[in-house]
Design a protein that fits this description.
The strands form four sheets. The chain has a seven-stranded parallel sheet, with helices on both faces. Helix 2 (22-29) crosses helix 3 (33-45). Strand 4, helix 5 and strand 5 (123-127) form a beta-alpha-beta unit. Helices cover 35% and strands 25% of the residues. It contains nine helices and 15 strands. By secondary structure, it is of the alpha/beta class. It is globular and about 55 Å long. The longest helix is centred in the first third of the chain and has 15 residues, at 3-17.
């Protein structure tokens, strides 16, 4: 296992449990205790965790795993979802992409579509995610519009009132939302209210809204609401979603695509 993979696994275990012992982590990852101690020390230097006698705890009372360490979670499901979402986009459209691991995969899926290889532009991408803009900026056939705002290091997203000036002057064909939670009753949501506000603006400027979310996020609630369920046209999720959950979303008027 590479160091990056170990660090992803260690941080995910910390998020789930709040505390890890060296021996426990070594057994989970099938590596030596010395390797785990070294990993804990290096992660502590980056303020990703707090070192304790014999282990580590999460950094701070409220902890959110930064985007670069989330890529291993439900990776294959997110890639399938991303491909399906990309297939719903028509050449020439203006597409809004929020930040997040799933929407980053959507951007990558759009980038490799052969029918989007040429055009002037073949797509207009509007995003508040610095990493998505960075990946797509090398594609000359894509017109990239980046909102203003202040960068949020956990998600690489630009947030705050500086984005309003851009989003208030554009219209979108489709907005693709990456969400922390999506529930029929409570709608789509994020953990951070500033991110939710920008995502809400993208939805309001779009003709149609697609939520791209793996099944672990469905039926869940989060702190900051992005939009109501009735504002969402399509949900793209993985095949592990239960029939009952699909039925509730469809009753609410949401088209559900499972992959």
């Amino acid at each position: 296992m590479s160091r990056d993979a170990r660090w992803q696994a260690l941080l995910e275990l910390l998020v789930e449990r709040g505390r890890l012992d060296v021996e426990e982590a070594a057994a989970e990852l099938a590596v030596s205790a010395a390797t785990i101690r070294r990993d804990f020390d290096q992660l502590a230097e980056q303020q990703m965790l707090v070192r304790t006698r014999g282990g580590a705890v999460v950094h701070g009372v409220s902890y959110e795993l930064p985007l670069r360490y989330k890529t291993a979670r439900h990776a294959s499901e997110k890639q399938r979802i991303a491909t399906a979402v990309a297939d719903l986009v028509t050449p020439g459209e203006a597409v809004g992409l929020t930040g997040g691991t799933t929407t980053t995969e959507v951007a990558r899926a759009l980038a490799v579509r052969s029918d989007l290889a040429t055009g002037s532009p073949s797509l207009t991408i509007v995003t508040n995610a610095l990493n998505i803009a960075n990946e797509l900026a090398v594609r000359p056939q894509f017109k990239i519009v980046l909102t203003g705002g202040v960068a949020r290091p956990q998600s690489y997203e630009l947030v705050g009132p500086l984005a309003d000036g851009v989003l208030g002057q554009i219209t979108l064909d489709v907005a693709v939302l990456g969400v922390v939670a999506f529930d029929v009753r409570h709608g789509a949501a994020a953990t951070d209210e500033a991110e939710a506000a920008i995502n809400r603006l993208l939805c309001e400027r779009a003709e149609r809204v697609i939520v791209a979310a793996d099944s672990s996020k469905l039926g869940q609630r989060a702190f900051a609401r992005i939009c109501a369920t009735e504002s969402v046209n399509t949900l793209v999720t993985d095949a592990a979603v239960s029939g009952d959950v699909v039925g509730r979303f469809e009753e609410a008027g949401v088209r559900v695509v499972t992959v």
